[in-house]
Design brief:
8 copies of one chain form a homooctamer.
Chain A (H helix, E strand, L loop, with lengths): L4 E7 L5 H13 L3 E6 L6 H14 L3 E7 L4 H6 L6 E6 L7 H8 L8 E2 L5 H12 L4 H35 L1
Parallel strand pairs in A: 1-2, 1-3, 3-4, 4-5
Chain lengths: ~170, ~170, ~170, ~170, ~170, ~170, ~170, ~170
């Protein structure tokens, strides 16, 4: 997997970048190269299809797509590829992401999108790594270490809480 | 407008036909010719784009699209044309059409879909006729007569209710 | 269409003006003249009906109406005309526009309202232009150019992102 | 109050009659005369306004209005009168009355509608009687007796349950 | 009605006072005397029942009760009286008043609560006045004038908008 | 605990009996005596208070209350006692128990109700037993055995599934 | 109960501490000792199970667990013990606690969680005390005094309101 | 991949089998071997952990888990492995799967679950195949053929519709 771009991250608008950065960041932590594109299901439908085909041709193995409101981008991408597509519902506007959650998760039979939590871009990145780990065992190892570190973080916080008590802990 | 197909009605699956028939029927009542297509945003994305372009080329002036669940079809069609697109959220599955309503109405700025009620295919047909009536005054006249007939229907039912009373009316 | 007022924009309260301005602005960008009225379905029902009839008499071809909460204005206007009526649900109060979305979209058979996204006034303006473009081909041309410009904007942002990377892009 | 029609019950469609009958029935039990009308906010807006004005002229003191979906009828009626208007959200279509509840309860400042439960027509009738009882003390007396009878019914059922046990009670 | 307290306004907590003040204020505008009580359905159930009985004994004719979250106060009060009870759902906590709306509107058959909009205390006051106007014709007259003034306010704003245009109006 | 009634089960209407029976049945399986009452928060508020006080006086240690719609009964009971009160939201009417879930769970600070799932009467019974098991160790033992039996049931079903395969298992 | 730890309070993350402190504080007011742990259902599942077993071995009699989003912690803990488990849905992220409320309350038959209001940690503490009061009568006495004090607080506020009027009261 | 079990499908109860069968069936169509287990997050938590570890040891590469209501199973499984876990929200009880959708999708950072539509077991199977196809190119080929066949199915239905018209098509 050296140097190869394995994941493509799409979003429909640059306003989604602060959320979607979470996916790119965790992939970088895990040593996985990703390309990132702004391309809209509604404003640039053909270019989106093209970018998906190019990504597939280049060897991308997982696609992550984030979208808000009537969030069509993940489903539209899934329509153009049989690669696994992960969808990130983005909270925006009055419905605060419920609209995006429904529009991404409720895909019809035949064309799935792997949906994560609203604004859950970090988990989208981890899920992409889990998917890649079937073929790249070194990623699985890194995921295990990341999980252990997370667990240690929780255990250490609990230890600190036992030592300092609630007020002491909260004051830190 | 004689003989010309002015409206194209799309749905993603033949299971949507019993609902979407409502649009075709009211267009027929108003003397407006429509073509009807089964074509999916997710299963046949390119053919959908093609059919939209063909419809536009043929002189279709309004498009109606019905879809359930993560209802992308109306938005996907709207991405390929600047013709007015009317979306019909179809009730199906556990969320009973709320998912489809959100996925159709909550379109991002730049690419509107004119959304009607859940399962509101008849109103989609009437709305298409209202849109066409800007160019075809004979349709506006027919819409006025349809409205008057509807009003008369309500008035007559009220009259019957006054004559027969509730029990009598309900027994009829 | 020179100089003629083709669209009437209604809202029930001047507090809706900052949202509804989005419709007027996009119509102006497209060279379409619009008149704007504050008139309430509940506080001035008769005047609302009168204004609708006057608009129709003057040659207005599309009506846009925005309303929040138990948003009756678009439906009440639709009851007085067979012109196409576009409804904009406005987010206000505790339910943040879901109440308005339901109260506008869920119209009964016979009297449709073309509903756009919550606070989607810009899309209401574009939809009005799409409707008018059946009769005024120059508007269709303008809509195509607007769509192309939007697409270019997305493509340019993607290009910038490829050049600068995420941090660079976000820093700009 | 002898013989005078004190309550007017409106509904937009005869399909609402089975629900709305609950209001008429309880008013009859309480000896209160009511007139019943089918008149639609959207299909017969002017006639609805007329019927409201006639009702007010005839001495009607409370209006009950039932409606489903984008339930505008109670609010539209409230716009034409300062009489107290009671709204009954009717469950119909995919949203099962939540749309109607929001469209009736969420009225803007200045024009209230007294909203009862979804399909709560019986309670609308009782509320109308409570309102009338300010002027007609004999109605207040009847309401007290109705309340006592209801209480007795509950107490008797509890007694029966104590005697027979759950199985015995359910077998009855 | 000179000098008599005709309305009692209840709330469960002094944190509801800023919202519920809206009811008291509009009653004062209409010349209707009201008493106001903080008394909780859950913290002081017996005192609440007592205050309701005292209010009834004193000649109070309408009760308004505001409550948030699992808003039981209006229903609990309605259980102790056959006077008309108006419920105001108050937005508080994570569910922002939807919980309160359901807990107030969805009363079981036999014990209605006249529900207004979330935080709709002003409308609760107007509804109380509408109820009282059956017995006190001078209140009906005042309600009519208030309605006219509201209508004039809307008409004047529209006139100003026509004169100044949107920018001018918004700059004012 | 021999022979003593330790749990009181309340419901507002005999229509809740088929659901609430689930609580009584599981208590019987665990050898815990319960009394059952139909008594309404709205129709018989004083009697409800009385029955709660009697139950407390008799030595009842846990109260279970089931209610639908604007489900006030559990909260009203909790207002009259400091015994632990378990609330069962019952699905009834158009909102299918969401209204009851909110009206029971969202209690204000100071007066908690231990809420279980919609129609979760069996779990209410088990929770009552868990509460009692602090004082009655034999109940804790029975709960452990019940849990083990449940676990065995799952394990056995899995074993059967492994033996027969899906079709075989489903045919049984 | 002198000195013994009777309640264990769990949360999955230290970000839940400001909310969950409400439970610990009210337990302290009632003289009940509690231990507090940060331990995650997903990040440290085995340690969570271990801590639950240790708590049970040490004599803890009630467990309180708070969690946000797909709030599994209370249910996961309930799976490892037959002690009563109280769940606190914590408002976090776009769904503002509705997700947590559903994920905690809607437990399957056999493994109940006693759910309180969203962010209702104080009520979780009081409910724990109510549960303990079956075995420790001194706690019941304290709960009664706390309830009385709460009632007095309400009564005093009402008295102040009668003296000062609304403006005076709000100015204080 | 010959003969090796690559996917493990879990469900908490045999009542979920009719839905979850959809995943197993599509995996079989694609020539992918799966094992199926009934094991509950709440009733058999330790056995569930054990089965997950066994599956991982045996070489299972993707896990699918279906659950209804407070659907913890997918998240609980994800806590025990870094393999990709696909969650299927199952519609059951009053909330009809919304509770399960939230409880599965809204996982906290660090432990993702790939969520599909409510009752979307078939899509869970296809997603599992897409994930496996990174390592097993023959699966990717099969997925492409399945997608093409789906597309052909849609195209053929459209052709039939053009030939027969709506009535003819529906009569078939």
């Amino acid at each position: 997997m050296e140097g190869k771009v394995l994941v493509a991250v799409f979003m429909g608008s640059d306003s989604d970048l602060p959320v979607m950065k979470g996916a790119v960041d965790v992939l970088a932590e895990l040593g996985i190269r990703a390309e990132v594109h702004i391309s809209s299901a509604h404003r640039t439908p053909e270019r989106t299809a093209e970018l998906v085909r190019e990504a597939e041709a280049k060897g991308v193995e997982v696609i992550i797509a984030g979208a808000g409101m009537a969030a069509h981008l993940p489903g539209v991408i899934a329509a153009f590829t049989v690669l696994p597509v992960i969808g990130v519902p983005i909270s925006s506007g009055s419905l605060q992401g419920v609209d995006a959650l429904y529009a991404i998760a409720q895909m019809p039979p035949g064309v799935p999108v792997a949906t994560v939590a609203i604004n859950g871009a970090r988990n989208a990145g981890i899920l992409a790594a889990q998917i890649l780990s079937g073929r790249y065992p070194e990623i699985r190892e890194k995921l295990r270490r990341m999980r252990e570190k997370m667990a240690q973080g929780v255990v250490e916080k609990d230890k600190l809480l036992q030592e300092k008590g609630i007020e002491g802990f909260m004051a830190k």
